[in-house]
Amino acid sequence: IQLREFGGGSVESGGSVTLSCTASELISSGYCMGWFRQGAGKERDGVAYRENDVPTTYADSVKGRFTISGDVAKGTLYLQMDKLTPEDTAIYYCAHVPKIPSATCDAVLYANWGRGTQVTVSS
Fold first, then answer.
1. In the chain, N or C terminus with fewer CB closer than 10 Å?
2. Gap between the Cα atoms of 73 and 27, Å rounded
3. Coil, strand, or helix at residue 67?
4. Residues 89, 92, 108, 62: is their CA dihedral positive or negative?
5. CA 19 and chain centroid, separation
6. CA-to-CA distance for 48 and 58, rounded, in angstroms?
7. What is the distance between the alpha carbons of residues 92 and 73, in angstroms, rounded to a whole number?
8. Segment 8-52, tens digit of pLDDT
């Protein structure tokens, strides 16, 4: 499965951005999908996860501000980001992995990754 992110750009602090992720093929049931981000000089961190069309987990730093949604079965995932701050500046990636029954989506190793899209928030 090939993934591609869209929607990055520059925005002022307090603004909103919506990212989308499209997959090269339909995704069958039994999956984890997630949004990750990597700021300059930082490690890549998970932002939000979705398991079988149900939002599951958000990083504490984005709770109440970011919303993961989409029709994954049709190959589309979104990340609505509101009340952005300069600390949200990063390259954002979407990722996919078939669901492992014994594991949660925030604790698995993702197999398929997009190339990322830059989001820059100015103060």
1. C
2. 5
3. strand
4. positive
5. 8
6. 4
7. 21
8. 999 999 999 999 999 998 787 788 999 999 999 999 999 999 888
